[in-house]
Design a protein that fits this description.
It contains 24 helices and 27 strands. It starts with a strand and ends with a strand. Helix content is 31%, strand content 18%. 57% of the residues are buried. The chain binds ligand MGD (2 copies), iron/sulfur cluster and molybdenum atom. One ligand MGD binds next to helix 17 and strand 16.
């Protein structure tokens, strides 16, 4: 049919998969958003949540923010009046200038994360804030910074992991503290199943990936470091360590050998609540290799997440499962970093010569927002802190401060936007051109404009170009056009395609052949080796080597509450889609039959979860999908749709041992 048009684009959500999308248009209107049949990951299907939301609230003008708005009612009441872009920009810049002159630009706090991961929309606004000199809430501290800090010490980088195409040569894939069945649905559905490797999952939760694995070690949360030592004990006892690799490429084997020797199978079984046979089998499968090790972001979201990551790094280092076909380690793949190995990197952030802006951990934001001497303005883009961040009550109280000028930029009227003095409507990924990759696969995707921005919404980058102009910031990098940045990035990536060619095809491999990273055996650490013993870590106040620690069991009848990625939301995104709300049902919490019995809790009953931060009602699901001592729910529903609170009301912002990051999977609660 002649009026039918197909536009290929890429899903820019914070997701391992990085799916290609086919947008179907008829008579100029988007009629359907589907998975691209020619994309190697999507293979013609979006995940369930995107299939609903991209055809639901994302196309629905009633659900979107359409115009800049100014607050007319009390903060939090979501009462606004429409204003023009010129008025909005003028009011914001007047306020930023006033605060900069009186308190200094560091009194402006901005917070952002991965609302969109498309390269320009995700990073361009940072240029503005670094020129302004605003304080940044360090983005990764809400998600994965403990892992980054730990693997920074060990490998010198945490963003250059294995190329998934290596899995064809693997005998074992060990998925540790990740749940691809929810967080990377296509990896779960295709990649894991098509590899000849045996799949081992280490996770307290028997999620779908664990249930379908060859072996699932359902350990007690927070006992992972002990397990890593236990696995190395067996590999050493059975002669499966690669002493040549250790001698040439690893620092610190001698320093941990006594701890490995002490971590006998019996000791490990007691510490982790696992069966000895399972520990033995996992150790032999992994150490025999070739093996891929995938450490999930869930794994490091606990009090000792950094130590756990250092302990798990012993596996590839001591068994030599690095730099050979079918072997490697992975946390995240940063395309810019991998591109930088070829000698060039796209310029997404402000050039290095701009003044270093101050930072605070996201764990400090709730208190900081309540401190009138510290911050006078709060600018929120690409995130929804009222739903996603810890200490919900304190965030809300900070946001009601009359002397805090708040700006929220989002495609949707979130619970955070309800507190804004000025709300700015962001265009959706279907409405502007950009580049978008994957942090798992080595793919580069075109994000292609398929419709005009809804209402008067604008892409993040255009909003910040306008703000820069109004502030009188003349630096050329604040005024680059999208096309200039896309062309420059594509050239740096050297994927062999121009923008028009990439647009046609939708996607390209970053490199035509699978990459065998770390083949040469040198690492960007001070010694050039894998540093299991790290003087840099020690200088920062950590032990020289990883420790075989286990978290104490919660006291006073409390249980440990896990709240990882669920199937139907993308963090809090899609929480406003009515069909998604229906599919999710009521907020529920899984409790082990033994714990339920002790407390007289039955399946389907309303229960109250409480700790020092809050009390929250959910529906109990009695299930052995989790071990005794543990509770399981999903993260980040829209609080206002749940009577004002979601699970993050219970999330106490305690920092991890490294990286000042969230320890949300270490939260403890009582249940009655
Ligand atoms: N209990 C619990 N809480 C958690 C976690 C957990 O495991 N448990 N996980 C944490 C993790 S890992 C993360 S990463 C954080 C994520 O937390 P957030 O970064 O707050 O993620 P979202 O809640 O999805 O909010 C992203 C917002 O960006 C908006 N957005 C989408 N596209 C654009 C755009 O182009 N421009 C702009 N300006 N906005 C856009 C979306 O509409 C949405 O409102 O949550 C954390 N919270
Ligand atoms: N559908 C969907 N997909 C998403 C997201 C989403 O919200 N929804 N969020 C995106 C984002 S921002 C991120 S960061 C990723 C996160 O995705 P993942 O890396 O998969 O991390 P999580 O979902 O936080 O948790 C993964 C697993 O860690 C386990 N875990 C918790 N504590 C422990 C422990 O002590 N030991 C071990 N071994 N395991 C533990 C949990 O039981 C869970 O099964 O997913 C992304 N993809
Ligand atoms: S969120 Fe992930 S799985 Fe879903 S369509 Fe986007 S990239 Fe694919
Ligand atoms: Mo995340």
């Amino acid at each position: 049919m002649s009026d039918r048009e197909i536009i290929k684009t890429t899903c820019p959500r914070d997701c391992y998969d990085g799916c290609g999308i086919a947008v179907i248009k008829r008579e100029g209107q988007i009629t359907k958003v589907l998975g691209d049949p020619d994309h190697p990951v999507a293979r013609g299907a979006l995940c369930g949540k995107c299939a609903v939301a991209y055809n639901g609230v994302w196309l629905d003008p009633e659900a979107r923010l359409l115009y800049p708005m100014r607050r007319t009612g009390p903060k939090g009441s979501a009462q606004f009046e429409r204003i023009s872009w010129d008025e909005a920009i003028a009011e914001i810049t007047a306020k930023l200038k006033e605060i900069s002159a009186n308190q200094g630009p560091q009194a402006v706090l901005h917070t952002h994360y991965t609302g969109t991961c498309s390269n320009i929309a995700n990073s361009f606004p940072e240029r503005f804030f670094s020129v302004l000199g605003a304080t940044e809430a360090t983005p990764d501290t809400i998600c994965n910074n403990a892992g980054h800090a730990a693997w920074g010490y060990v490998f010198g980088t945490s963003v250059e992991g294995f190329d998934p195409r290596q899995a064809k040569d693997s005998a074992c894939i060990l998925v540790w503290g990740a749940n691809p069945s929810a967080s990377a649905p296509h990896v779960h559905k295709h990649w894991l199943k098509e590899s000849p490797a045996r799949v081992v999952v280490i996770d307290p939760v028997r999620h779908d990936t664990a249930a379908e694995a060859d072996l699932h070690l359902q350990l007690r949360p927070g006992s992972d470091a002990a397990l890593a030592f236990g696995l190395m004990h067996i590999a050493r006892r059975d002669g499966l360590l690669d002493h040549d690799y250790i001698a040439a490429h690893v620092l610190g084997y001698d320093a941990v050998e006594a701890d490995i020797e002490a971590a006998t199978p019996v000791w490990t079984a007691v510490k982790t609540d696992l069966a000895i046979d399972d520990i033995e089998e996992a150790a032999r499968l992994y150490a025999t290799g070739p093996s891929l090790l995938w450490l999930g972001q869930g794994l490091q979201r606990q009090h000792r997440g950094g130590n756990i990551f250092r302990a798990c790094a012993m596996l590839p280092a001591f068994t030599g499962n690095v730099g050979k076909p079918g072997a490697g380690f992975y946390y995240l793949n940063g395309s810019a970093e991998i591109i930088a190995r070829k000698g060039t990197a796209p310029e997404y952030h402000a050039p290095d010569d701009s003044a270093a802006a101050p930072e605070i951990s996201q764990m400090e934001v709730p208190a900081a927002l309540n401190d009138p001497d510290r911050f006078k303005a709060y600018m929120v883009w690409n995130c929804n802190p009222v739903a996603s961040n810890p200490d919900q009550a304190k965030i809300r109280s900070g946001l009601t401060r009359d002397d805090l000028f708040t700006v929220v930029i989002d495609p949707f009227p979130t619970d955070t936007a309800a507190y804004a003095d000025i709300v700015l409507p962001a265009a959706s990924f279907l409405e502007f051109d950009d580049l978008s990759g994957s942090y798992f696969h080595f793919t580069v995707g075109a994000q292609v404009k398929a419709a005009e921005p809804m209402g008067e919404s604008l892409p993040n980058q255009e909003i910040f170009r306008r703000l820069a102009t109004a502030m009188g910031f003349e630096q050329p990098f604040l005024h680059r056009t999208d096309q200039e940045m896309i062309d420059k990035a594509l050239k740096a990536m050297d994927c062999g395609l121009t923008w028009d060619e990439l647009k046609d095809k939708g996607w390209a491999w970053g490199t035509p052949e699978p990459l065998n990273l770390w083949e040469q055996g040198t690492f960007p650490t001070p010694s050039g080796k894998i540093e299991i013993a790290s003087q840099a870590a020690q200088a920062d106040g950590h032990p020289l080597t990883p420790q075989p620690t286990v978290d104490e069991a919660p006291a006073n009848g409390r249980l440990r509450l896990l709240s990882p990625a669920g199937k139907w939301l993308m963090n809090s995104s899609y929480g406003n889609d009515p069909r998604i709300q229906e599919l999710q049902g009521d907020a529920s919490v899984a409790i082990h039959p033994d714990d339920a019995k002790h407390r007289g809790i039955t399946d389907g009953q309303k229960v109250t979860l409480s700790n020092d931060a809050a009390s929250l009602q959910m529906t109990a699901v009695v299930s052995d999908i989790i071990p005794a001592g543990t509770l399981l729910t999903d993260k980040s529903r829209w609080p206002n749709a749940e009577g004002g609170q979601n699970v993050n009301a219970l999330h106490i912002p305690e920092k991890t041992d490294m990286g000042e990051s969230t320890s949300v999977h270490g939260v403890e609660v009582g249940i009655a």
